[in-house]
Amino acid sequence: MRVFITGGTGLIGSAVVAELLAAGHAVTALARSDASAEKATAAGADVVRGGLTDLDVLRTGAEQADGVVHLAFSNDFSSPEALARAVAEEGAALAALGDALVGSDRPLVTVSGTPWVAGRASTEEDPLPTDGPVGGRSVSVQRALGLASRGVRSSAIRLPRTVHNEGDGGFAGLVTQIARRTGVAGYPGDGTQRWPAVHALDAAVLFRLALEKAPAGTAWHAVADEGDAVGDITAVIGRRLGIPSESVPEENFGPLGPIFATDQPSSSAHTRAALGWQPTHPGLLEDLEKIEP
């Protein structure tokens, strides 16, 4: 099928584009910059120029495609205000994509995070939280899944907080960036809180499977590691960078501090059984060994 993708040149998107092309699909990628356009073209995708705020471009891209994968997000965590703008921008973009597909029975695969549930690993049946600094993203995703009743085969891939490749990406990647800047591989609290994780190449396979066969209105967990202790994650980061790993104030992580401090293991048992998804790439702790000192 001809697939229109947003965010097709990021860490996750690049893996998804490669997976789709390898499976015989054609890909048209949204590209905001010359660099992104060149990267998408080099990967073998066609290119449409525009960003998430170009709603007419998004609608046209969706109308001309056999299916849509939405991954783009500005990832501006510099302040609560910037994060709120990013969430609102994505919500409008996802609404435009969904509206363009109403009545077509074509797939729309979007993305969210895995929810956290006190005392246990979250499952695909657990609802997404709509409060907190990124709660608005959950609202947008639920609205997209609701399009199942309007003739859209919508589905959502719930990604863990760390999607990694070659030792970079996600929350672990952010912690590594902060560690390089501050000289401490820090974690909030006692470090026993757990973060789920998945390799980007494994996540890409799940996006393809959802595009090809996920029923309308369904959510799936792209979780390979159910939960690595944050203290174990920062221990590897600290060792690779030659710096100490220790507890630091939650405030050091800005608006993401409360999320960093939360114990949030997650299960993908249903996803594996229903879609036949089986992660095969290195887990997070092994992949972090590739961090360059």
**Which class of secondary structure composition applies to the elements?**
alpha/beta
Low-confidence stretches: none
Outline: globular
Number of domain modules: 2
What is the ordering of alpha helices and beta strands? Answer: EHEHEHEHEHEEHEEHEEHEHHH
Largest sheet: 7 strands, parallel
Number of strands: 12
Estimate the helix proportion, in percent.
40-55%
The second-level CATH architecture of the largest domain is 3-Layer(aba) Sandwich
Separation of the first and last Cα atoms:
42 Å
- What top-tier CATH class of the largest domain fits best? Alpha Beta
Which strand order spans the largest sheet, edge to edge or round the barrel? Answer: 3-2-1-4-5-6-10
What is the assigned CATH homologous superfamily of the largest domain? NAD(P)-binding Rossmann-like Domain
Strand content: 15-25%
Protein name: SDR family oxidoreductase
Pfam families: Epimerase
Domain NAD-dependent epimerase/dehydratase: 3-216
Walk me through the structure.
By secondary structure, this protein is α/β, with parallel strands linked by helices. The chain folds into two domains: 190 residues, 3-Layer(aba) Sandwich (Rossmann fold), CATH 3.40.50; 74 residues. It has eleven helices and twelve strands. α6 crosses α8. The mean pLDDT is 95.
How do you describe this structure in short?
With about 290 residues, this protein is of the alpha/beta class. It contains 11 helices and 12 strands.
Secondary-structure blueprint of this entry?
Blueprint: E1 2-6, H1 11-22, E2 26-31, H2 34-43, E3 46-49, H3 55-63, E4 67-70, H4 80-101, E5 107-113, H5 135-145, E6 153-159, E7 162-164, H6 170-182, E8 185-187, E9 194-199, H7 200-213, E10 218-221, E11 225-229, H8 230-241, E12 245-247, H9 257-260, H10 269-275, H11 284-288
Parallel strand pairs: 1-2, 1-4, 2-3, 4-5, 5-6, 6-10, 7-9, 8-12
Antiparallel strand pairs: 9-11
Helix pairs in contact: 1-7, 3-4, 4-5, 6-8
InterPro entries: Epimerase_deHydtase, NAD(P)-bd_dom_sf, NAD(P)-dependent_oxidoreduct
Pfam families: Epimerase (PF01370)
Domain NAD-dependent epimerase/dehydratase: 3-216
